[in-house]
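Exercise 3.2. Students should predict the tertiary structure of the chain below and write it as structure tokens, then compare their answer with the key that follows.

Predict this chain's 3D structure.
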Amino acid sequence: MMKEKLILKNRKGAREILLLLLVGLFSFTSLSAQNSGTIQVSGVVTDSKSGETVIGASVKVKSGSTGTVTDYDGKFQLSASANAILVVSFLGYKTKEVPVANKTNLSINLDEDSELLSEVVVIGYGQVRKGDATGALTSVKPDELNKGLQITAQDALIGRVAGVNIVPGDGAPGSGGTIRIRMGASLSADNDPLIVIDGVPVNNTSISFINPNDIETFTVLKDASATAIYGSRASNGVIIITTKKGSLGGSSKPQVNYSANFTVSKIPDYYDVLSADEYREIYTNGTINVPETSFKLGAASTDWQKEIYRTAFGNEHNLSVTGTAKQIPYRVSVGYLSQDGVLKSNNYKRFNGGFGLSPKFFDKHLSVDINVKGSIERSHPVSTGAIGSAISFDPTRPVHQSYPGDVGLGYYVWMDDSGKPRSLAATNPVAELELTKKLHTINRTLGNLAVDYKIHGFEDLHLNMNLGYDIRRNKQEETTPDLAPLMYVSNRSDGRGQFHSEDNKNTNYIISTYANYIKDLGSKHNINAMAGYEWQRFWYSTNPRNLVKDVVDTSIPDEDLLYLLSFFGRFNYSFDQKLLVTATLRADASSRFSPDNRWGYFPSVALGYRLTEEKFIRDIKPLSDLKVRLSYGQTGQQDIGGYHPYLPLYTISSDAARYPFGDEWLYMYRPNGYDPNIKWETTSTYNAGLDYGFLNNRIYGSIDVYKRYTKNLLNDIYVPAGSNFTNKLETNIGDMEGQGFEFAVSAIPVKTKDWEWTISGNFTYGKSKITKLNTIDTETSYVKTGSVSRNDLQIHKVGETPNTFFLLKQAYDENGKPLEGKYIAKDGSITTIQSDDNKYVTGRSSRTPYYYGLSTHLTYKKWDFGINGHGSFGNYVFNYQQAKQSLASVYSEGMSGNISRVALERGFAKEQYFSDYFLESGAFFKFDNITLGYTFPKLWNTSSSLRMAFSAQNIAIITNYSGADPEIYNGIDNNTYQRPRTYTLSLNLNF
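Answer key:
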């Protein structure tokens, strides 16, 4: 009894505090409404089930400005006309309209709104109520208010889903980032998640062709219970993208939406190198000794970084029309985007179009969805080598200079004493950007026809068929003219220009059919059974060309086919909506493998228990949702290298490699390496999860832990000479395991008539470890990786995380200053030999074990304000940009180059490419987006509105990393194209 009193006392105290906050900040009562017909209305708002009063419920007059909130006793009072209608709402309850009907005292009961649990989420080959899901999945709707400029679809997911780490592309607009779900399960095979767009699994190429404004939801499937229904290619998770469509519930009158973004972008910071005057000083003060008397510094003062960077502008326009015509829902959309990069000559344009029809026939027994989307992407990419050249180019040299014979085409070129261009010199970065013309054009269309028939007289059975396609053509052209400075240090190094092109085509066709049977057996039992078949065909062709004057083109075209056949099934059982069981099985056949190894079988089973349906839990009033999930499943991987690694294939020689036989020149055939026994890589995952909700789901989220084992890794390994027709072979060898923890929470601390404040956050820990790598593993065996400029900085090794850095241990003096060229050997002695024998396994990897995301959103009447951010820690970055700098790069053999102030202070005479001195923590927190917006309602009628917003992206980063930005997926910082700081003015018009 004392305990119950104490709980009630604390509860009442909490209510009093909440009341003070609500009343002090948000409640008001109109005191000026004294017109005739106005009465004072009072009342109390209670929970319809428990009878408890509802604190802070919003009570306002419909179509008016008068309103208030309930106090800590659930009571309210306001002025209203005798025939007014009161709108009563509170988070977690259904909104209720109550007629005043000339009453002065009202008793209002609110019903709980189970929408959060009843919300339907898309899963593989079907849908499920969110409350009935047994797998680890997250459904995300794009944030329409706090999104800033989103060029690619993946931008909408950054930092928003636990277990999903997205490293955005670099600063080039339209560049694709890296998506990893639970760190990925493979080593050499593809680690990208499977992406399914409106039922069409697509190649894991860039999804930049999708207009983010056309996306309705993302559903991220993480554990094997959720992904096993996709079997092949699902080991690395699945992202299901559902695009916007019309609906029968919508208005027959067309609903028009127009949105526009206008952007200004700038480079966040320049690399800290010497100015021209500082550079001249190190030559005059004796820091740099120049033996050649003919060498002279230039007379110019050039800031090369400012010469290659610019303030970039962009604009985006999107128009969509949604409605219903003759009972046929439709949606049509068009979009245009043009965004300059902060590097000169860099630009990205995208044209989008799409339409969808969703008619229903035969008394809604036959549902048809038709979706077609198309895009044209035109980009002018630039080489990031220009960034490195701008950092290191002599600041005393001019951008432009004339030479005999028009060498350099008016740009500065390094010349030797005889007046000829030097072939081992740095190239003019401005010339590289302005003279090399690159054009990439991607034409892509994706569509599907989905038919669902609910059989007449047997409505529990649905038959579904989905026909889909994804056609892509990527044409790339690159032209560098004769005499361009770049042509004296690359290509043939003799000034001859070059033309390179590629014409790449990809097609993907899919036929998917399945039957779905849903039946309630009595009042407590429900079954949902599905079985289906799927056929998918992939084809590619590539046709490269490389033209140089007087040089034979040795390019060889290529094309190939890949087929996937699948049978799959799923069975769901629900008892009293609290005990949930899901079992799936998928059988996949891939033409990548021989007939003996072609089929892979991928089962899963999951159990869910909704504890809040039990009476002993239901009586805990603050707890609104509690579900426990357990699952186990297997998924497969077959995406490695070529389409037929098991076949003995031959490659035909080019025209330049024919063999003379008599009077004829014959083509030669070279055998390729192959493994006839290559087979499926298989990943087994155990997952335990908890979904929770408090205070009518005003606070809700999930917790997941998992353990994963990958067997028969598809790996690209070196093999002994003579054992095959190649020295490197794609085969099954190695095992890997991973484990992790994921936590997600969302809360609405404040929700009143005028104010609403939401907070969301997620945190992920994930770790992978290689447990087997070769047939016989030894302490000294490893596989090198992480190569830059032919320097391998990372390894794969048993007992270590993939991509662990393998470096030399730097030696220091008594003052903590690094000793150039001196390292600590394995026996503790000091050595100067930079060999693998003296390197050590650092235990530090570029793969990110800890990452998190935070967001908050505040609305006040027509104003809204939001902040998004994400970060990570535990990963490491090798600052190669610093490692490759030394005093030798300032002057060498008659050529001079710039250096950073840090490298000058360090004083290394030569580059130290493998020193762990340059290995740094990659921890950071980044403010992704800050947005302030205002909405103008009822512009010319009740359905018209305009929202204006200003946002800043990439506004700040908190990190101890000495480079520009530690968010680099491969962990090697070299000539990085910095992500710009972008300011956006947005308009969104609805009518």
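Discussion points: The longest helix spans residues 2-25. Confidence is low (pLDDT under 50) at residues 1-36.
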